[in-house]
Structures are given as structure tokens and as C-alpha cells.
């Protein structure tokens, strides 16, 4: 059968013939084909119905719910103690002592070398660890008084802390009456840790016409200087351990002249003390206690105008053997033989218990009196009421009726600093036992410049005005006495003319010594006064 042909085959054969005949260069030619357009029936249908569709799934609903249970229960996870576990732990804690010894022997020389280096270092000079809580303000802890003394309008003439710092004592009397007084007075003490606002009748140690007192540094006694007796009052009794009567020929002074008492440690037996008294007749007497309870005069000194060094023109003193009234005394902590006295003529005198020169004979004295004065310092404008030696340097402070505080070096007659603190009297000044640049002064007034009666100075902050002034008494009622507590160094006791003793708690600013504070004091001591 003949092969079947399709209608388009002739056209294809013709096209093939043309291509074969065309030149090779015409095989590839550019051409443009018309575009093709396909209309979407689906979109036109949707547009006609105004529908909007997307491929996003339907909205998913969400909700929040707390997962915290309504009840709670604590359960311990500590395993029970077993003897086997304890034994296993002890076995694991065994120490290789042989290896430890070998290690210590290897590092011994290096450790000792470093310890010696640290021991000689001065990096922490003056630094003391403070284990107490920090306190930024000065607070009044206690306000103490005795009802019977307050009813008689008696004044607190002296305050003192005992050797442990737990008991504060005060004497009641009158300092504004120079004549003999027949009023009953008191010497009271109280433990500040468990006291209330009153010296209760069970607490006073003695009820005597007292003028001043001082606590023993080594025993729980308070030496009390009375109008008519010198009495170390016992801590545990309401009586007297020892006394010297007014008729004792060794005293030989008018009763109202007695001024101050101090405990004086004996050179051979540091635990034994003698009682030292000063008075405005110029006598400085040292008493020892006998077995029968009486105080016997052991030795004495007399400050007279004739023995004052002639290098200083003392116009205020009468010449000859006239007495120079002694009002206050303070011993140097660096030389137990050296002490400073303040006198009614306004001068401070450097004295020594080692003096051998005899004073002019004074009637009524049972022992020879020696002249202790060695150097006279530049005077105040009135009688000196208080002196205080620095526990850190060869310096001392003095104050008096001119309202000034003088800072003196033991080696210079002129004061290093003079501070006009009050327009009235200054009755007491005390150096801080822990801060080389801090001291306290008791004034007879509160004025516009310095509101208050107890002034705390810090030379590190200012050498011209107090860092803090504390209002102790009512207006125009002076503060007569104050004492720092040597054991509890944050406590300061002050007594005033209203018959009140206030115990102040000092802030850390007044009790923590700075690292270069001693150097600053040394620099201050080396200054040459104008």
C-alpha cells in the first residue's frame, strides 16, 4: 500500500528546502512574537461580588490562666543523719600532716620576713579598729540629779568616772560662795548602765559637804575633797575609807581654800596610790593612808611668789613669801614627775615632784615643803580654773575667767593658740583620751556665737570655733565640770549649776582617730607662736 501522507507535509518539505538554500549567516535572526493575554475569570467574578479574600487562617482565640497552686507546702531535702555518712566524711577530711609540715617549713622564712616587714611598717599608725556601731550625732543618754541637793539649790562641783568606766560620781556644793558654808552637801554615784533620771537614795555613797572628787585609776575609790575633810569614798559602802580632820595641824589652811584632788600612783608600787590635794593657800600636799583609816601627810610643796622663775615678769604676783593660790593641777603622761598647775594670778606653772629647793617655812606644816615651780607660762586675763595635759604630746590646755582657752607647749612660754570661747568664765577644759586633736570645754554661758555650754573642739576641722556646742543647762547657768570616760570613750559627763549631771554619747567623729592625726598634732606643736 502506498504510504499515507498528511496535509502539512508538503509545507514542511518546502520550508526545509528554503532553509537549506539560505546562507549560514541567516540561520539566526532576531524576531518579536506578539504577547499572549489570559483573562482570569475567578478575579472578575469576585470583583463583581465585591469580596476580599486572603490566605490568612481564621482568628485564633487565646486566654490567660494562672498556674500558681492555691496551697503551698515546704519539704526538707536534707538527708537523714547516719553514722556511716559521718564516718565517711571524717575519712575524707583526713589531713596529710607530713605534707603540711613540709610546706610550712618551706615557706617559714618567707612568712617571717613579710611579718617583720609589716611590723616595721607605719602604714597603719594611729588606726584603731572600732567594733562599736557608728553614731553620727551627739546624744544625751542620761540626765541625773539628786532630789535633796536640788531642793537646796546645790551645784555639781565635780564629776568623775571610776576605774572601770561603769560608775559616774559627782559632788554637790557651792562654788559661788567663797565663805564657810554650813549647808549639808552630798557625794553621789550611780552605775550609768542601769540608772534612771535620779540618783536614788540607795545609790549615793556619802552625804558630806564636798567640793571636788577624783576617781582612782587603779582602785574603785573616789577621792573627795571636802570643806573640812579629804575622803576617798569606798565603792561598796556608804561610809569613808579614810579621812583627815580639819584640826589636823598638817592641813593648816582655811577650809574654803581647798580646791582639787588627784590620785598619784606610787613609783615603787604602781597599784598603790596616794591622794594629792591642791588649795588656794599655795600648798600641794600628798597623803598616804594608814592602817587605822587616817590620811597622813607624806610630803608637800608650796608655790610662793619668791620661787617663781625671774625670767618672766609676773606683775600680778606679790613678791616675797606671799602665797600663790593653786586652783588646778594636771600631770604629764610622759613624765610622772612633771605636772602643770593653774594659779589665781592667771599663770600656769610647770612643776616637778623631784624639786629639792625648800620653800620658805610656813607655820602649821608637819613636813618640810618644797618649791616645785620651774617655768611660768604667759598669763590669762584672770585666774586659771582648769588645766589638762595631752595624753598624746607634750602639750596642755588651760582656761579661766577671761573666757579663753590657751594651747601651750611645755617648752614655750607663749601659747600656740588662744581661743576666745566665751564672754564669761570657762570653768573646765579636758583633752580627749582617744582623739589627739579633740578637747572639750565647759563655759558659763550660751551666747549668740556659740549656743550651748559644753563645747567640743576638733583642730582637724577648725582651730577657731567648736565643731559642736551642746546645750547643758538653762540660760546663764554655768557648767562647772566635765570628764571623758577613759574606758567607754564615747561617754562624756558634765555637771552644772542646776545640780544636774548629763551623760553625753559622742558621735564617731569625736572617737575615731584619723590616720595622720598625730602628725597634725606634731605639726601644731612645732609651730612658733607670734
From TrEMBL:
State the GO CC annotations.
ciliary plasm; cytoplasmic dynein complex
GO annotations under biological process? Answer: intraciliary transport
Q: Which InterPro entries match?
A: Dynein_IC, WD40/YVTN_repeat-like_dom_sf, WD40_repeat_dom_sf, WD40_rpt
Task: Enumerate the subcellular locations listed in this protein's record, separating them with semicolons.
Answer: Cytoplasm
Keywords assigned by UniProt, alphabetized: Cytoplasm, Repeat, WD repeat
At the top level, the lineage of the source is Eukaryota
Where is this protein primarily located? Answer: cytoplasm
Q: Where is this region: Disordered?
A: 64-85
* GO MF annotation, one: dynein light chain binding
Name of the protein described by the UniProt record = WDR34 protein
What lineage, starting at the top, does this entry show?
A: Eukaryota, Metazoa, Chordata, Craniata, Vertebrata
Amino acid at each position: 500500500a502506498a504510504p499515507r501522507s498528511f496535509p502539512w507535509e508538503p509545507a514542511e518539505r518546502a520550508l526545509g528546502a528554503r532553509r537549506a538554500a539560505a546562507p549560514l549567516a541567516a540561520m539566526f535572526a532576531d524576531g518579536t512574537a506578539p504577547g499572549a493575554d489570559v483573562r482570569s475569570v475567578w478575579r472578575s467574578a469576585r470583583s463583581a461580588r465585591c469580596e476580599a479574600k486572603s490566605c490568612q487562617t481564621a482568628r485564633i482565640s487565646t486566654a490567660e490562666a494562672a498556674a500558681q497552686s492555691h496551697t503551698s507546702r515546704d519539704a526538707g531535702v536534707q538527708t537523714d543523719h547516719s553514722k556511716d555518712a559521718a564516718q565517711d566524711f571524717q575519712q575524707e577530711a583526713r589531713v596529710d600532716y607530713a605534707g603540711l609540715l613540709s610546706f610550712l617549713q618551706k615557706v617559714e622564712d618567707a612568712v617571717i620576713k613579710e611579718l617583720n616587714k609589716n611590723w616595721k611598717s607605719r602604714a597603719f599608725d594611729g588606726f584603731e579598729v572600732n567594733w562599736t556601731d557608728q553614731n553620727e550625732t551627739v546624744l544625751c543618754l542620761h540626765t541625773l540629779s539628786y532630789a535633796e541637793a536640788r531642793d537646796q539649790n546645790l551645784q555639781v562641783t565635780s564629776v568623775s568616772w571610776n576605774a572601770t568606766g561603769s560608775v559616774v560620781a559627782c559632788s554637790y556644793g557651792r562654788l559661788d560662795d567663797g565663805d564657810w558654808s554650813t549647808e549639808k552637801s552630798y557625794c553621789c554615784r550611780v552605775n550609768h548602765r542601769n540608772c534612771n533620771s535620779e540618783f536614788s537614795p540607795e545609790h549615793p555613797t556619802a552625804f558630806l559637804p564636798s567640793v571636788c572628787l577624783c576617781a582612782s585609776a587603779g582602785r574603785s575609790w573616789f577621792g573627795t575633797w571636802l570643806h573640812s575633810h579629804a575622803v576617798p569614798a569606798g565603792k561598796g559602802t556608804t561610809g569613808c575609807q579614810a579621812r583627815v580632820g580639819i584640826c589636823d595641824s598638817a592641813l593648816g589652811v582655811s577650809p574654803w581654800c581647798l580646791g582639787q584632788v588627784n590620785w598619784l600612783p606610787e613609783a615603787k608600787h604602781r597599784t598603790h596610790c596616794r591622794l594629792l590635794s591642791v588649795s588656794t593657800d599655795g600648798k600641794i600636799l600628798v597623803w598616804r593612808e594608814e592602817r587605822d583609816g587616817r590620811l597622813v601627810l607624806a610630803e608637800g610643796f608650796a608655790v610662793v611668789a619668791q620661787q617663781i622663775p625671774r625670767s618672766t615678769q609676773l606683775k600680778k604676783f606679790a613678791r616675797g613669801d606671799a602665797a600663790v593660790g593653786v586652783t588646778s593641777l594636771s600631770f604629764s603622761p610622759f613624765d610622772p614627775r612633771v605636772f602643770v598647775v593653774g594659779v589665781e594670778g592667771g599663770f600656769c606653772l610647770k612643776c616637778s615632784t623631784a624639786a629639792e629647793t625648800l620653800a620658805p617655812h610656813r607655820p602649821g606644816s608637819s613636813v618640810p615643803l618644797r618649791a616645785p615651780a620651774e617655768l611660768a607660762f604667759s598669763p590669762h586675763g584672770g585666774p586659771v580654773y582648769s588645766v589638762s595635759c595631752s595624753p598624746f604630746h607634750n602639750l596642755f590646755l588651760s582656761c579661766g575667767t577671761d573666757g579663753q582657752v590657751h594651747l601651750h607647749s611645755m617648752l614655750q612660754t607663749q601659747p600656740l593658740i588662744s581661743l576666745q570661747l566665751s564672754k564669761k568664765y570657762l570653768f573646765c577644759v579636758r583633752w580627749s583620751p582617744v582623739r589627739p586633736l579633740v578637747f572639750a570645754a565647759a563655759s558659763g554661758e550660751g551666747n549668740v556665737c556659740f549656743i550651748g555650754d559644753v563645747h567640743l573642739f576638733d583642730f582637724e576641722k577648725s582651730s577657731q570655733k567648736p565643731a559642736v556646742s551642746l546645750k547643758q543647762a538653762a540660760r546663764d547657768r554655768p557648767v562647772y565640770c566635765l570628764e571623758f570616760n577613759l574606758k567607754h570613750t564615747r561617754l562624756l559627763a558634765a555637771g552644772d549649776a542646776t545640780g544636774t549631771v548629763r551623760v553625753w554619747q559622742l558621735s564617731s567623729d569625736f572617737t575615731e582617730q584619723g590616720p595622720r592625726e598625730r602628725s597634725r598634732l606634731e605639726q601644731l606643736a612645732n609651730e612658733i607662736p607670734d
